Structure formats: structure tokens, C-alpha cells
Amino acid sequence: MSDTTLERTGAAPMRRGFPLSAYLICAGGIVWREALRFIHQRERFVSALVRPLLWLFIFAAGFRQVLGVSIIAPYQTYILYEVYIAPGLVGMILLFNGMQSSLSMVYDRETGTMKTLLVSPLPRWFLLVAKLFAGVAVGVVQVYVFFAIAWFWEVQPDWLGYLTALPAIVLAGLMLGALGMLLSSLVQQLENFAGVMNFVIFPMYFASSALYPLWRVQESSPLLYRICQFNPFTHAVELIRFALYQQFNGDAFLIVLGCTVLFLGGAIVAYDPARGLISRKRQ
Amino acid sequence: MQDGTLSHAEAPGIPALAVERVSHSYGQRKALDDVSFSVPQGSFTALLGPNGAGKSTLFSLVTRLFNVRHGAIHILGFDLNGEPGEALRRLGVVFQARTLDLDLSISQNLIYHAALHGLPASAARTRIGEILATSELRTRLKEKARNLSGGQLRSIEIVRAFMHRPRLILLDEPTVGLDIRSRAAILAEVRRLVKEEGVSVLWATHLIDEIDPADRVIVLHQGTVRAEGPVPEVVAAERAKSIGDAFTRLTGLSVRAEGLEEVRP
């Protein structure tokens, strides 16, 4: 009896649960949208590239004479300063990209686009992880375009290094993206985001091994050295630096992995309606 | 159709939406106070209330943007806290704020939404053709959403809400900010889809002229339900002449063409 009633009203019975294909289609859709948005925002791509290139072309050229870099792992010979900061600049691209993605999450929340994402029936942690991977995919493209340009600037690691660096770049991107996501849940309004930039991006970038080797830092300030060591960004940069020369930095890997799990866990809790912060905010 | 595939919860007797003793506060301020009502399957139910009555809070709870802390909400029998995935897949929503991505094309927006529900792009395209079969928007799918008028954006958001064949559609003041012609068109479009697809609707509004005598109505005021039932019954219970009159008696608010307003002393 119930069958005929349902048929008359046009209802299709649904099975419980979601097949794996639904998860894949959903994640694919989220990455696809991020890619489309990225293509539409060409200025974002250009500025994402110009920033590290300025550092490479101008800052590094100026510092080349001032800052001698002795032979430290993973390098086996004396290297140009440009070569030294290249992994740091990759980290910078990922850092800005991670913050940019989270900025867009705050924007999405203000415009309501976030609501349509969160109303998806798939688990919320899955939606956030998919969103995170979408942001990282965009970051990886930026990094490799940067590598291609830097190659002409004498930053020429082994070809195989570009391949071995990929997992490190992805993991570092995930960590920084997850951090951005966590911050986006804490920032109530878009206007407050400039503060996050000043208080997160710049300290993280400068108090790290991105621009100068840590032994140099230790010589001038033991305190700053400690701070640099506690900065997860240092380890993200070191992970990429070693991987680019086909070496595995185990400590850096564990720290970056641990921080990724921590930040992502925090973001999932923050976006969970049961415990989350969004329910306490009046939109 | 086999019996085995039919879930118990979708039997016709079970309401499309059941809100049971739901309360919600923002700090000290109570936005919803012990709210209970239901939307029977296949019905068009209007949620009538002035601004600030708690309609948007209620929508945030039903769409699981906020967690239900006090009380329970069931969609087609599925508890929103217990089985959120099963509940949400049966739900389509049109939010009050515009939520289309203006930089993407109309079809990209719709395909993205279908993907969020696990529908592949091919199925999404078929579905778009189905819903927009008679609409002139069908020829503009490749255009950026930015090029559309307010009324057209809303129409696309309604298409989006129907994409994954939900059983319950929630619309939060969908005609706000539209001119009279667009308002009528949106209302007609939703009523047509409801008839064709047999879905249930909860239509939040503060505009009394959007309510049809054949609808059901829930009157929400200051976070509490003041009346619930078919329009003629609510009118009769208040010994009123019209639903507008009944509303005034229930809430002490006057009804004007542009919406509901407090009676000025």
C-alpha cells in the first residue's frame, strides 16, 4: 500500500548510507570549484608568484654577498644564497596560499556559500578535508610554476628532486592549510583578517629557517633560535629542503605530520555544529 | 519497487519535518522557546512570522548549521542529531541570502551543488534539463551568475535546492528584495515543482499574501508557535475574517501590504 502511495507522489526510495563514489564525486566537485575560482582570479595567481620571485630576484641578490652559507645538510657543496632560500620561498607560497584559502572560507561564511557546503549530507570532517586538499592542489601548481622560473635563476636541483619534493610540499601545504582553516573558524569577520596576516604570516615566516640557516640565528640570538625551533613552519621548510635533495628529514616529517593532525582536528571541532564555534555566533 | 529498499521512515504517515520541543538561545536571549510543529508529507506549509520571530534560527537548526541542543528535529523520520547524513540528503534549502558563486556559470554552480550530494555531472545535467524544461533560463546556463537579475538568481537557487530530488524543501523568505512580478513568478514556480515532484515545503515568510487558502500555516512570534494548522482552521479558531486578521489577533501585529508590522500605539 505504501508503495503505491509513494509512487503516486513521485517519491524515490533511498538506500541508507553513501557509496564510495558519492564521496569521490563530492571531493572532486570541491577541488573542481576551487580550481575554477583560481582560474577566474588571475591576479591572485600572479601575485602569488610575484611575491616569492621578488624575494628571489632582489632580496636574495642583495643578501648574496652579506650572508655566506657554509656547507650544511642537505647541501654537499657551497651553495648560492638563492639556492638556500628557494625551499623557504616554496614554504612562503604554501603559507600565503593556506591563509588565502582560509580567507576565502571567512568570505564564504559571510556570503553564505559556506552554508551550502555544510548542508551537504556527507560528514562534515570529510567536507573540510576535501576543501583542504582543494586548497593544497592550487598551492602545488603555484609551487611548480615557481620552480620552473627559479630554474633559470640557478636554482637547479636534480630532476628527481622535483619528484621527491612533491609529498613534502603536499604535507607542508596540508599543515599550513589546516592552520588557516582553524584560524578561519576563530575569525569572526573578514576585516579582522588583516590582523591574522600580521600576527601569523610574518612572524611564522621570519622566525624560521626560510631565510637564514638556524646556526646563524643561534650565533646572534639563542632565544630567537628556540623560537625558530618551535615554529612548525621551520620544519615544513626543512622537510621540503631535504626532500628537494632526495633526502628524508624524519624529525621534520613527524613534527609537520603532528601539527597537521592537530590543526585539522581543531578545525573539525570548530566547524562541528555540536561543539563548534559557529553556533555561538550570530550571523 | 521492492519493499526492502523502502525505509520505514519514508512511509506516508511520517511527517516530512517534525520539530519537537526545540529551544535555542544566543547567550541570554532566547530565540526559540519550546517550539513544536510538523510539516506533513506533500503539504505546502507557510511559516509566518515578523522579522525576529525566530525563523532564521529555526532554519539554521533544521539545516544543521547550529546543533539542536534542546528538543529534537526529524526529517522524514531521521533524527538530525542521530543520522544527519540521512536527514540532510532528503532536504533541499533556499537560504535567505544569495549563495550562488557569481564568478561561476549557472551550470557550474548547479553541478557543484550536485557534487556535494554525490551526484555526477552527467546526472546533474539531465536533472537541470528536467527542471528547467519550460524555462527560458535553460538557454543561459553557460552565462556567469553575475549576469542574472535578482529574480533569476533566486530561480536558479530554487533549481539548486531541487537538484538532488529532496523530499522536503525549506525556503527562508525567498522573495525578499524582489519586485512583485518576480515574487509571483517564484511562488508559482515553487508551487508547480511541489505539485510535479510531490515534495513537502516549509516556506518562511512575513508576507501574508503569499499564503494560499489551501496551505497549512504556522504562526511564529517571539520564538513561540502561536497557531498551527490548515489556513481555514486557523482562521476559524480565531473567529477571524482572513488569515491576516487571524494573524493580528494572534500576535497583536498589524498586517500591511509590505509585510507585518507592530501596531503603533
Automatic annotation (TrEMBL), chain B:
Top-rank taxon, per record: Bacteria
PROSITE patterns recorded: ABC_TRANSPORTER_2
Keyword Methyltransferase: no
InterPro entries in the cross-refs: AAA+_ATPase, ABC_transporter-like_ATP-bd, ABC_transporter_ATP-binding, ABC_transprt_ATP-bd_su_PQQ, P-loop_NTPase
Location of the ABC transporter domain: 17-247
Family classification: Belongs to the ABC transporter superfamily.
Stated name of the protein: ATP-binding cassette domain-containing protein
Organism: Jiella pacifica
Classification lineage: Bacteria, Pseudomonadati, Pseudomonadota, Alphaproteobacteria, Hyphomicrobiales
